[in-house]
Fold each of these.
Amino acid sequence: MGMKGKSEIGRFIAASVLAVVCMLNLVSKFMTSTGQGGPSYIGFYDAKFAEIRSELTRADSAKTVGYLVETGFENLSIENQGYFLQAQYGLAPIFLHPATDADKFVILDARIQPAPIVPSRFKAFKILGDGIFLLKAAQ
Amino acid sequence: MISIIECLIWIAASIGIGCCLVELCAARSCERLGALGLALGFGLGVGSSACLYFISLLIFGGASLAFVWMNLALLTVLLILRVLLYRNGGVRTPSPPSPFQYRDALIPILAITAVVFILTVFLRSSTFIHGGWDAWTFWNLRARWIFRSGADWPASVFSPLLANTDYPLLLPSTTVQAWNLLGTETVYVPVSIGIAFELGTVALLLAVLWRFSSPMKSILGMLLLMATPLFIDLGAYQYGDVPIAYFFLSTLTLIGLHDSAASDRKEWLALAGFAAGLCCWTKNEGMLFAGSVIMARIFTARLSGWRNLAKELLYIVVGAGVPVAVLFYFRHAYAPPSVMFGSQTVRGFISQIFEAPRHAMILRAFIRSVIGFGGFGNWKISPLPFMAIYAAVAGFNKNQRYSRFLSTCLVSLLLMLAGYYAVYLTEGIPAAKLQQHLDTSLDRLMFQLWPMFILTYFLAVRNPLPQENVAHSQPSPESWPA
């Protein structure tokens, strides 16, 4: 077998090895994809926030809806930003204000750490379960 | 039921528009494209429809279904044009012969691999029904906002209370179109868009490599893309990175069709310009890509002459006109300044260029992304060393039939890498937060270039099967048997 023949075999082997590596990667991805749960909590909490949205009348939605945290969005941890954005995703097109000074409605999310303090002016509660509460300002 | 039929009509009209655009160019340059035409037509159609929807949104408001009629009208015009201009169907150059001698052995392997890939894509997508972080914080959130706001959409969608409202609207507007037609806000629409772009990218890569290299290389290329875990994940996450990778690849494919055409017609370049414009309407990185492609054509102009270059650039710019005009209006009338550069000052820009620690941090991240454990693709076993071994063993094609096409791909790729580096270096993000930005975005940016890298690689290297090299180095399309 000449040099050319050897080079052709080498080329074919190199291509075959590359193909096998690809197959291994694909099969490995397939194996890890079966039975692996995704972030189902997004859908779960989305339904909770949809409930809040249905609680607010058309006139209410023009009022300030707050998300109870001790600081502005920029200063929240990544995790807490995620919770806030989930609420914003669920409540669209109602704007959510990441603050404690919202004057009409406030959402209390028990997942927020450290847990926010509920100002005394918020009296009425609607418990939506799984850590989500809708607070209303006292009349 | 009626809404589902309306939705199917809209899908058919959108893809029909893309296929008609490709067909008009193919008939003009007397070529038959087959599967490649369909793979290109899918994305161009989705993009055209997204541009039309934005125009409809401006004129008729959020809840109107006028966009369907606009799609149907455009499709009708294109069909009439097709019939009037090429009544005899054009004298078509036959497709290059494909000496695919191992068809019987490889087709079953290919079919099994494709089935495993599709199953994995569906499994993964079903576990991320709302998509990943970027999907529900930007893309799908924006779609919800437009859909739920009705006539008030301009006031609410671009509110400073929302994040990244400067991002272009191709993906959200495609989602909203389907929701408007279905009359309900189902999560299965963005899921389907994610899956469609994944399958479209695979089909396009297979078809373009089949046309410009060889069946064996196209199968290897397709395998490489399908076996990239990050590709499967990004599609399931419904991120914009897979659609933009598709549009990068389609722009280069259309340039390849121009460079390989027997005639000197430039219509393919106009369509390439249109695809580049759609890149800009998909994600901000698209603007960098459009600039890179234009620069790549300039750098490789000596292969075709300067006078010819001026003509080429004119066609590309004219083709990009509609999506770029839509983007320009969106930016001018609605979008806030860019999150990354809006707060940057000239002094900050210059001082960051000379910050050695910033360079070191970015370089480290680039190296880790390419050769670190798992690489940017999150592979179990990175294929990159094996690609290097194959290139070393097989060698590179010295008699390139499509040398300018290959040069354009290579230069675009290098300019994109340089561009991404420059963006990280000069963006208005302080050094303290840069590492986090690199950690959350660089792998996705590298992935965007991955399909075009696979194309460039397989255009450059020799075939695994020597018999296929004979066909690959044939001198010109004119010599193919009728």
Amino acid sequence: MAVGAALEVENIRRCYGSVVAVDNVSLVVDRGEFVTLLGPSGSGKTTTLRLVGGFEKIQSGAIRINGERVDGQPPYRRDTATIFQSGALFPHKTVTENVSYGLQRRKAPPAEIRDRVKRILDIVHLDGMQDRYPNQLSGGQKQRVALARSLVVQPAVLLFDEPLSALDLSLRLKLRAEIKRLHEELGFSAIYVTHDQGEAMAMSSRVAVMNHGHVEQIDRPERIFNDPANEFVYNFIGESCCMAVTIAGGSISDGRDPLDMHLKTGLADGAWRLYVRPSRLKIDAEGCSDANRLKATIQFVEYLGDVFRYHLKAGALDIFADHPTRLDKERGDAVHLAWRDDDMKAFR
Amino acid sequence: MAGRLIPWSLMGPALAIVVVVFGLPTLQMARMSFNLHSSQGLYTPGFTFDNYVTLFTNPVFTGAMRTTVQLALLASLATVAIGYCFAVLVWLKPARWRLLFIALALCPLLISEISIIFGWWMFLPKNGLLSHVLLSAGLITDKISLMYTEFAAFIGLVYITLPYAFFIMLSVLDGIDKGVLEASADLGGSPLVTWKEVLLPLTSGGLQVAFSQSFIWTMGTYATPSALGPDTLWTLGFLVQEQMLGKHNWPLASALAMILVIGVAAVVVFTGMIMSRRSRYHV
């Protein structure tokens, strides 16, 4: 058994000209862990993945796989395997030839290659497709081949580069569950890059939220959701409405006009941004015991399937709140919003 | 019935041009190659195999065939090799370099073959640019002339066909997802293995097209090899011209041209056959 975590990334940095793409990122992936890099485009998540895979060179820091420094080595010497967004299957090779490629490079005996390829194709539900060429496969099947091609070599770390983003929604959900199942079954270590927070939440052991080339927070998905480290993470994960208010001597205003708002815990004077998730905002909560309140008027209603989303206005603030049923109210009617202290985050 | 006519009627105009402009003259040339030589006019109508017998027995003509094929083969191989490397380089480099390289490759196409030959006449002789540069760089001690050598003919041919090979290869490369190179490296393929296992099979079709294109050109052209090569460099193209305009022997010139056409067609069909076998994944 090798020593150290499957992957250790230590203060890596990569600039392109004056743009810092990856800025002192550190990350540890334990054996069997599924870590997601989540962030908006341009946040450096894909570059981080490519640095680990060896497609780009780090300018400082260190990368260790199973305790061994690999940052000076080319991709073909690193024990990683990437599942690319485009799939990047070899178009001139059949499914079997594609999946065998990595094992052939590792000089595995032909009998072993045959067995392992057959087994992995069974696992990803591609039996019967062995002799097809990539252009004879559907988008979902192609990504399964890409998955099989990387899984079969049993690398120290699997690197997923937004493998599902090119697929349509239903297929994406299906393959997402399948990757999760494979992870449970095979116990591989992986880094998964995505900008889809649903994917990140559903699949990961831990999520690293990235922004402007550095990691804002790295933690278990439920901790990221419920206890975000800062405003960016709070904003990026889940939906939230932002109320920009100014507090001065106990009175609360939207910056110009006073608001009919009451906060249980007083905040210091100054400009604040208060965040509450729309699902935690109670509408029409006149007799409610929750301590934080705001009076607002209804602008319009959206029907979202599970809930009705009420878009409201209070002074200059635009707020939206979800309610399970349609209210007996119309545009312009006043409602009372209420929320618990625990459900609010305040940033200044 | 109408459904079957539509493709033909759409192809019609192009087909008509091919038949009238290429097909009929070739047929006429084939017929001419069986006519008799006349000492007065250009030919005497008749039917004889003599012209072909002459071509395959007279050492002047058999020698010319060997020379032509040899020169065309060498020049085409060199063209394809250089064009391939150049195209791969442009394909791999960032897009900002691309336009510059494409403009460079276009240059030879903007100049006529005759002007290019005049250019070589400035460049290759004893008092030419090349000699001066090599001398002042200290690489040679005495002025040299590369003019009127087989090497000059070879260089001239490569220069003319290179842009075509380059653009053919670049268009083939542009159809390839560069991700496959990374995928290969990622799975343990060294650069050499990646080239052999991935890039070469994906570009082999383009290599064959580029090769046949260069080969057709270098087999047929006569101005460049006869203007740059030695007096003894007799290519088929040169002999066709000589028989036609110098010796006024149209039947023999036609027979020579027929050999050229059939030889080139054979190469094209042959490469086409290899290609269709290789590219079955483009279903």
